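Per reviewer request, we include the raw input and output of the structure prediction for the construct analysed in the revised manuscript.
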Amino acid sequence: MIRVRWLYIFATLIAADTTSAQRPARSALTAADLPAQLAPATRQAIARLGDSLRSAHLPDEPLYAKAAEGVLKGAEDVRILAAVRVLARELGGARGALGIDADDAELVAGASALHVGATPAMLTQLRDTHRAAGNIEARTSLATPLVALADLLTRRVPAPAAAAAIDSLVARGAPADDFAALRTAVERDIDAGRAPEASVVQRTQVLLKGIDARSRRTP
């Protein structure tokens, strides 16, 4: 859960920065920002991973943020380096599943979803649905649906049910608020003892009906 929340914040910040040309450039994390508590060899290994990601046109900032997170939690260097390597692989996997057009926020959110049980095929399906719904032309981000998918998976919603729910909302052009509402409602249901799959199916249907109702009211 902590990992997904961290990645949600990180992906949201990137999305906000990449969707507004009026905002000043983000102050990027670099290898120079790695915590001094890390051993030199660990810092060098993470810096090399960052170089590899940049060469592949992948975001390297998440690696440095992940390393800093590990230091804050008091993790040993070996565990921090292992976690950073996993994240680097997941970012590459997200690129493979989402394609070359995916932006940094989408890649970070996609990596998070892969980490908690989504398959590359699920991410590709969401990308294709997103495109078919006309979102590419509108330049809307797939990051929000991907974060919602990751969040549902951390709540033990079965992956096929979680992916189907998010895909159906993407297909209807659901706004970001609907994905947030789904996450909140499912969390509340599960805390109350309801089965995760039953919750996500019912809550998604409610949201889809709301989308349909709004569409009927629109001239």
